[in-house]
Structures are given as C-alpha cells and as structure tokens.
Design a protein that fits this description.
The protein is mainly α and 145 residues long. The chain contains six helices and three strands; from the N terminus they run H-H-E-E-E-H-H-H-H. It has one domain: Sufe protein. Chain: A (Alpha-Beta Complex), CATH 3.90.1010. Helix 1 crosses helix 3 and helix 3 packs parallel to helix 6. This is Cysteine desufuration protein SufE.
Length: 145
C-alpha cells in the first residue's frame, strides 16, 4: 500500500489478512503501544480533544523542522479499543513525514478489516482521530509556508 508510511502499511496488511476471530485480540494488543506523554506535556494541556470518541481522547501533533511529525495521544486505559487506535497510529506513523501522514487514507480502519470486529461508532471515533491529526498537521504546514 503505497499511499501510507511503510510501518502503517505493514500493520494494515497484518490486520487485513488476519482471521476475523483474532482481529479484536490483535487490536487490543495495540492499546499497550501508546507511549506515555513526555514530561512537560501535561494530560490534556495543549492537546485537542476528539469529541467523536465516546471516551475522553486527546491528541497533539507537531511538525518538526525536518518535516517528520511527532504525535502524542492521551486516552484512559479503561478504553482499550480507543487506545488501540492511538497505538496503531503511534507505531505506524513513527518517523513519518507530514506529507506521508496527510496521504493516509480516511478509510484506514475499514482497510484493516475492523468493521467486522468493532462497532461503527468506534470506527467513526478512530476515523475522527486520524482526521484531527491531519488537520493539525495541515494547520502547521500553512503557518510554515
């Protein structure tokens, strides 16, 4: 899948080819992949809430001088599915450039085959996380031009 960073494409392919009965288990493994917030970035401060998520979910993206993007996610452990979306993005987008992230397809979670494993409401929340991440990147790129 050339329309997304290689790490993310590998994750998508892994999910898409997995038997349906293990997809949810695989998804939940990513809930542990969310790195802790760095010191100095306090929970929710300077982060944008994603109200489409049923759970309090916050994110922040920063385009670095080398055009790579650092992203931080804050979501309670009691929301493993939502945390898993963040874990997938954290792992799959690590080291990716702004343009690579902006090229990630909006239907990412459907491509992974998650629509058969989780509710449409949760898919909508995951899609909103990606959309807000991209919007923050576009806004920063607009101020750098």
């Amino acid at each position: 899948m050339s329309d997304m960073p290689e790490k993310l494409a590998d994750i998508v392919d892994e999910f898409a080819s997995a038997p349906r009965e293990v997809v949810l288990e695989m998804l939940l493994e990513f809930s542990d992949a969310v790195p802790p917030l760095p010191e100095g970035l306090k929970a929710h401060e300077g982060m944008e809430q994603v109200p489409e998520c049923q759970t309090p979910f916050f994110l922040r993206a920063e385009v670095q001088p080398d055009d790579t993007v650092k992203a931080w996610f804050d979501c309670p452990p009691e929301a493993p599915t939502t945390r898993a979306f963040a874990g997938i993005l954290a792992e799959g987008l690590e080291g990716a450039s702004a343009s690579e992230i902006l090229a990630v397809p909006e239907d990412l979670y459907s491509r992974m085959g998650l629509a058969t494993a989780i509710s449409p409401l949760r898919i909508r929340g995951g899609t909103a996380i990606l959309a807000r991440l991209k919007r923050q990147i576009r806004e920063q790129e607009g101020t750098r031009a």
